[in-house]
Amino acid sequence: MARSNRGGTGKGGGQERGGRGRRARQALTERVGGGTAELRPDPDRADGWTLLLDGAPQSYVDLADPEYLGFDYQRRIGHVIDAAAPPGRPLHVLHLGGGALTLARYVAATRPRSTQQVVEQDTALTQLVRDALPLERGWRIRVRGGDAREGLGKLPGQWADLVVADVFSGARTPAHLTSAEFLQEVRRVLTPGGLYVANIADGPGSSDAREQAGTGGRRPPPAHLRSQVATVRASFTHAALIGEPAVLRGRRFGNGILVGADGQLPYAELTRRAAADPRSARVEHGAALEGFAAGAAAVTDATALPSPTPPEGVFD
Length: 316
Known about the structure:
This protein has helices spanning 20-24, 72-83, 102-110, 123-132, 148-153, 180-189, 209-213, 223-235, 245-248, 267-275, 286-292; strands spanning 28-32, 35-41, 48-53, 56-62, 92-96, 115-120, 140-145, 160-165, 190-202, 238-243, 254-261, 282-285. By secondary structure, the chain is an alpha/beta fold. Strand 5, helix 3 (102-110) and strand 6 form a beta-alpha-beta unit. Helix 2 (72-83) packs parallel to helix 3.
């Protein structure tokens, strides 16, 4: 799944309530469509759970506090959710990729009465999550099984205020979710002022020797992330990239959060929030983002490739 390790700190409280995972507080392992899923209790938070797929940390949920986002990438997407509209305003949100439904829970808690659709291909994983980590009654979250792009294509135009793309298969983003044609469908579904935010994993080794030779020996930014920036910049009027400096410089494998919109983005607010994270991040936009993607071509369906395979040991 190529997610960042957990960056949050502190103890959590709350009584254990219904749901088989919460009663037992023991790790739960099951085979699902994407491999072996494990729900692992957090010893530091009484209602905290980590979802792993084939050993890779995928999602973190605190059942007593759905506003707690324990992974770095989750918090950074949370910043975009917070900035998408004035506090508390309900949104129509489409989630491509469900996992443990962490971000859908966050939207429901911070923006009550929001209407949310989740498209998750692994229906067995969804059932495991809903059984062990049930959603609160009254949350308007509908989960559909199926391919993310196909599910996107079934939604009416201008339905979503926010589209969140966080899809991994075998720890890689499928190629058909990285192209300009895919983003055309995203723009069709977004309202005129809507936002697109995607979790992109990349790191050292994805840039070729010619790129490294052309930088005077400096390691260039990761090639996949650069191509995704180029694609979003070609598809939307405004774009931003949020990530740790070491990841953006190609020194470490990790996650970049890519944001696109046709309306103006709240760059200053995103920068302030990202810098205040437990593991501070940088926000690139404008000329800096153009320089980051320099030389990279926008991806089409004909040229699209999955995101890189995470290096061995990255999740240890």
